[in-house]
Amino acid sequence: MKLNCKINGEFREAEGVWEGESLLYVLRERLDLPGSKNACEQGECGSCSVYMDGTLVCSCLVLAGQAEGRDIVTVEGLADEDELHPVQESFVEAGAVQCGFCTPGLIVATHDLLERNAEPSDAEIREALAGNLCRCTGYEKILDAVKLAAGKNGKGAS
Amino acid sequence: MKSESAPTRERPIIPASNPGRIGESRPRADGVPKVKGEFEYSSDLWMDGMLWGATLRSPHPHANIWSIDATEAEGMPGVHAVLTHEDVPGRKVYGMEVPDQPVLAWEHVRYEGEPIAIVAADHPETARRALEKIAVDYEVLDPVTDPEEALKEDTPKLHLSGNVLKEVHIKHGDVNATAEVVVSGEYEIGMQDQAFLGPESGMAVPDGRGGVDLYISTQWLHIDRDQIAESLDLPPEDVRLTLSGVGGAFGGREDLSMQLHSCMLALDTGRPVKMMYNREESFYGHVHRHPCKMEYEHGADKEGNLVYVNARLVFDGGAYASSSNAVCLNAGTFACGPYNVPNAKIDSFMLYTNNPPCGAMRGFGAVQVCFAHETQMDKLAKELGMNPLELRIKNAMKPGDKFPFGQTVPEPAPVAEILERVKNMPMPEEEEIMGRDLRRLPGGVSNVTHGEGVKRGVGYAVGYKNIGFSAGFDDYSTASITLSVEDGEPLIRVHTAAAEVGQGGITLQAQISRTELGVEKVAVLPADTRIGSAGSTSASRQSYVTGGAVKMACEAVKEKVFEKVREEFGENGELSMEDGGVSAGDRRIVSLADLLDGDEIEETVVYRHKPTYPLDENGQGDAHFQFAFAAHRAVVEVDEELGLVRVVEIATAQDVGKVMNPQSLEGQIQGGVAQGLGLALLEEIQMKDGKVQNASFTDYLLPTIFDMPPVRMEVLELADPDAPYGLKGVGEPPTISSTPAIVAALRDATGRELNRVPVKPERLAGIEEEPVRRAPQPGSCGPVAERSES
Ligand code: FES
Ligand code: FES
Q1: Do domains A3-77 and A86-152 have the same CATH topology?
Q2: Which domains does chain B have, with CATH numbers?
Q3: Would the pLDDT of B765 be above 70?
């Protein structure tokens, strides 16, 4: 089948999509957007988080066909090529990145949290990010990064 | 060495960075590409015309294979190759310590998930469907799933060498010593998974001349290369490996997974072949932490001085050897903990079973025994009516004491000091339980009470482990440093084969180079096999060994620079490199731009730490070259009615020798503690009759951001005189004693005996029995379905 949707502000088309493919697969393998990650492909880790029509979703749980005509934003679309979104900047500065496999999903999830809640409490951050697994950092520097980003008033390109 | 054929694929270059000196926190060079989603992991690799590989795995933990028929699969449209053991050109087995594991199984399968055939197809789904069309005729055999059973004489032998893979026996002092106060216990560790987030993946690209390039996630390029070359029957130079982006490792990428399979498929089809496991397959595709049962007896005098320790350790090695030998040795040598123990008898057994192969995971060998010896120390303290911390401090080993394996405890060994530190660290504030935000109760929002049953507890533990490879292993690393001037600015290029798996090794290499040569701009080249081995990124060894190699290569470059300055400027005094030039004291002699005048200086060196020796028949010998110590204090809250836990805080003191990069050090400590917490409370691969019951992140529970408390830490910098900059490996100690500290705190809160980790809610709530199992009802699945399978 053929898939048409808007991705990071551009109209994109993917041909020859098998019906069983997920949005994550199409992004990664057909549209050259491998930033969204595939740590579990069953909705448990959040590494594949993207926006679909402004809502945070696990792209591994979205069938490609469900994305038809939708507006998708991935980690690649949060800032211009040579720029960093304040959330991205904060993750680098706070040392919240080790292997980085969880990072794209956490960046998108944090972006979403700060859009909804500019000054989240500790408990709110933990609640919002409880669906994003990280195996390397022990999460403490991720918490620091989110607070840092909130401090920078983490808004901008979205 | 550097004139090999061009790679078949352009290598991603990590941009030159401005890394700062050792001791400084600077953002890591790969941080920006990682947050932008641009960093290329091995699962992101893509090439025109590439095929997808997939693996057929045994559904049975133990079976004979009578035949494999791939005819139907081969004929499917889109399928380019179906390969079996017959297609392995060289050695049909592989293994890091003992080559006992089939590349593809023939005649027997010894664990559920063992690879039998591989397929290359034009779409991953086509490949998966082709697997279903491969007909394998199995004769299902009873699996040997209990290591104690495997040890018995009349149990079927799973390998020609028998079921005992390794045994270590340590006899220290008087093995028949007796004591006034004796405590004993039996302890058990479940099978933990590394659960790195980046799946096993990589791409093999045929070079058109019979050789192959492999872009891969691994912990040790050269040991992969050697095993691959052996089984492909190719000279090592025809198998070139380049490290791709690695999404975590923790020991789980030491063994081969899809490396050989993708190379076989690429050479067979003449096309690039990508292989990538999904999460379920990943649980079958790598080794796990060894489950272990441990029987302990401690004897002490009435004042609390340890007199003896006797221990019997039985490890489940699973179907193949992996790094089990080293685990068995480590566990034996560290079985008594960091205490001065005058007499000891330790018997450590590693068994083959039909369970999944077990191998390396952060802290291996030490993690298992630490849970047991620390629980024993608490028991002993209780028996003596002593404070458990005081008992530990009293018996803490000191430099000059003897380890139970005969080696002398070297300087520094600050065991008492780190215990004093955790004792004196401030306690977290006590927060009123009733009326709290639900998210701050044990279990978070799934807590259905108001906190009536919540109790607080505090526990302590201390542990230690060797750094690096031991017992006579030639544990070296190779580094090349090139100094040049580009665009008028001096630049250092660092090349090693050390795998960056997330720990921050590339940042450290850059910091060392920057510090040694006084040059601000450093580029760390991609790790590959064009340079000599760096050894494994495991055993907390890379900062020491590859760090040492980089430092030594810098010193060699520096010497060349100084020679040139002496020749050209007739300088005879002390020289130094600073700010991109050479100085004598405060007097600048020349800038590197002028001195090099378009030339470069390159030096490649091999660095070795001091030698180690195998243990003798009594388990005695100078087996290890460095030891790292950490202590932990855990504060927990337990809901006794629901069996739910909230870890309030972990406090830790660790000797690191020298803080090389404060931010990455903190990250290692926090991340290591999280894995220790996982083992204490959540993480276990559940096995039933040799079959994995929970191969998914739905059923294998990892700590989330909700589960992890803040980590309060103090680091000591007591230099190891033998190590570069005095540093000590830091990755593993945080994982070792955090687990027993948490369980000690749970005991303190509940008064229950908790002798097995992970501690399940049932245990905490006092439900000792297994849930009642009803007899199978007509129409129910389960046992009936299982019967029809065999
Ligand atoms: S890959 Fe989508 S949630 Fe894990
Ligand atoms: S940084 Fe490795 S999983 Fe989060």
Answers
A1: no
A2: 41-142+202-275 (3.90.1170.50), 412-466+613-770 (3.30.365.10), 476-608 (3.30.365.10)
A3: yes
Q: How many CB atoms lie within 10 A of CB B653?
A: 25
Place of tokens 């900047």: A89
Confidence at B783, pLDDT banded by 50, 70, 90: very low
Q: How many CB atoms lie within 10 A of CB B91?
A: 14
Burial of B24 (0-12, 13-18, 19+ CB in 10 A): middle
DSSP string, B255-290: S-SSHHHHHHHHHHHTS-EEEE--HHHHHHHS-EEP
Please report the residues numbered 71 through 100 in chain A whose beta carbons come closer than 8 angstroms to any beta carbon of chain B.
Answer: 74-76, 79, 84, 88-89, 91-93, 95, 97-100
Tell me B341's DSSP state.
Answer: -
- Average pLDDT estimate for B432-454: 87
DSSP conformation class of B731: S
| Closest of B420, B408, B511 to residue B460, by C-alpha | B420
Q: CB–CB of B413/B398 below 8 Å? A: yes
Inter-residue contact B651 to B425 (CB < 8 Å): yes
For every residue of B161-193, which 3-state class applies, written as one string?
CCCEEEEEEEEECCCCCCCCEEEEEEEEECECC
Which residue type is seen at B486? E
Q: Nearest-CA residue of chain A relative to B279?
A: A40
Of B386, B364, B270, give the one whose Cα is nearest residue B317: B364
- Does the structural domain A86-152 have CATH classification 2.60.40.10? no
Which one, of B762, B759, B726, lies nearest residue B742 by Cα?
Answer: B759
Architecture of domain A3-77: Roll (3.10)
The pLDDT of residue A158 = 39
User: What sections of B631-766 are H helices per DSSP?
Assistant: 662-681, 733-736, 738-750, 761-764
Nearest CA in chain B to A45: B697
Contact A95 B710 (CB under 8 A): no
User: How far apart, in whole angstroms, are the C-alpha atoms of residue B513 and residue B494?
Assistant: 8
Q: Do the strands B93-94 and B101-102 form a parallel or antiparallel pair, or are they unpaired?
A: antiparallel
Instruction: Tokens 């002798």: give the residue.
Output: B755
Average pLDDT over residues A79-104: 96
Q: Which of B44, B125, B703 sits opposite A34 (nearest CB)?
A: B44
ipTM value, please give it. Answer: 0.97
Q: What is the pTM of this model?
A: 0.95
Domain ranges across chain A = 3-77, 86-152
User: How far is the centre of ligand 2, averaged over its atoms, from the C-alpha of B80 (Å)?
Assistant: 35
C-alpha pair distances (Å), A111 with each of A75, B73, B435: 10, 46, 31
Average pLDDT for residues B191-219, to the nearest whole number?
98
CB atoms within 10 A of CB B214: 29
Are residues A97 and B278, on separate chains, in Cβ contact within 8 Å? no
Per the structure block, which two tokens stand in for A122? 């500790």
